[in-house]
Here is the input.
Amino acid sequence: MNKHFQFLIALAAIALFAATFGALAVQAQPAERAAPEAASYEAVLGKSLEDRDVADFLASNRCSSADRFQLCNAAGMALLIGESQKVETVYLYPSPIPGFAAYKGTLPLGLSGNDTMARVQEKFGQPKVQHVPQAGWEPGLPDESGTPDHIHYWAIYKRFGVTVVYNSPSAANKGATIYAVLVSR
Here is the structure.
């Protein structure tokens, strides 16, 4: 549990860093510079920084280093680099946030950037009784959850390797939309 809490604190720190300093970097870029094509998180997740695909991805998306992160602002992504120098977690921002463009690629598990918490729980749900379709549907509740930054509710789905961060600190706000999707290996 302590390891997950440290991970959540690290994400909160990056979000604060990106909100504070990212807006300055976005303003400093020339207006005529075109955004790169939609980048795929799958191309880098679990791979070493020394991998050619990862190196090309970082260069083509103008990523910058910040502690254990590679911030790919124009691609709407941040990459958490593990101690083994592999991409451990990819942060996807489906809507623009200060310092980051919207991620234009496909989100994992059929998620959509405009999904609400209720819709995500519906997508991650399962039948109440396996072989009785009329029994109804159970919402896909997270394996763990919390509000480490007191601004966003985090729903951790270990079984899928995904954390969904919402634009609300409350688990009761079923209309909250997705702020970020974290995909881990």
In short: The longest strand covers residues 178-184. Residues 2-28 form the longest helix (27 residues). The helical segments are 2-28, 52-60, 117-123. Strands lie at 64-66, 69-72, 77-81, 87-92, 126-127, 137-138, 144-146, 154-157, 162-166, 178-184.
